[in-house]
Amino acid sequence: MVCHEKGAKHLIEPQKLWESSKIILGSVAQLYGKILPVPKNNISLLRKIPFGSGIKVLPTPGHASHHQCYVFKDWFFAGELFGAHVPCDKGLYLRPATPHRFILEDYLKSMELVESHLKETVCFAHYGSAKNPKLILETAREQLKLWVKIIEEYKDEKNVDKIIKVLLENDEVYAIYNEFEPNMKQRESEFSINSINGIMKYLKTAEISGVGGFISV
Pairing mode, if any, of strands 68-72 and 55-59? Predict the structure, then answer.
């Protein structure tokens, strides 16, 4: 297993990660099941994986401080850098993946960092794959900025369903959600709330530290 050095300790001793997951994800964490430890000897901290012609490892903080992406030939393994993706015949569906500890500035820098590595195919952690990776990057970047802008405007709103309604009205990529079958809607609704809460926490931290009002779309 290859991971970022900041994530290694949580894989070896995952109890703290599991407790945080239960707080952030609630019942969804229980569906995935308790996180089991990974033997220390099974973990590698590499910048290039010796497989075939080699797999490049790119540190890409933002979604989390230990987030990484991988490049193998023409495939770019994006993790959550471009958000969550649901394959569908209605068009490109993306949703920002911005849990607690999300940091906008790091996220945007990571998006800029990987641009030169995008070639033919993007593979998403959640989930599937898609062509035209540079279009996906730009779409994900503008979507992220739009979500932060809207949520900043509604940061005092207590009804998260109202925020989702506004996002659906203003984000045509996210609006494909309306075409999903009920089970997928339920799944995406729960994770949308998690993404909104992550941006809310980021904005509160930015406000306390004197940063804010910097998003322009």
Answer: antiparallel
Place of tokens 């503008």: 142
Residue pLDDT, tens place only, 27-59: 777 777 888 999 999 988 888 888 888 999 999
Domain ranges in the chain are 1-45, 49-208
The correct answer on CATH 3.60.15.10 for the domain covering 49-208 is: yes
How far does CA 100 lie from the centroid of its chain?
A: 11
Instruction: Give 66-92 as a DSSP string.
Output: T-EEEEETTEEEEETTT-EE---TTS-
What single letter denotes the amino acid at residue 159?
N
- The vertex-198 CA angle with 88 and 158, nearest 5°, equals 100
CA–CA separation, 143 and 139 (whole Å): 6
Q: In what order do the strands lie in the sheet with 121-124?
A: 48-49, 55-59, 68-72, 75-79, 121-124, 129-131
Round to whole Å and give the CA distance between 64 and 156: 25
Beta pairing class for 75-79 and 121-124: parallel
One-letter amino acid for residue 214 of the chain: F
> Do residues 193 and 177 lie in contact, with contact meaning Cβ atoms separated by under 8 Å?
no
What confidence tier does 1 reach under pLDDT thresholds 50, 70, 90?
confident
Specify the pTM: 0.86
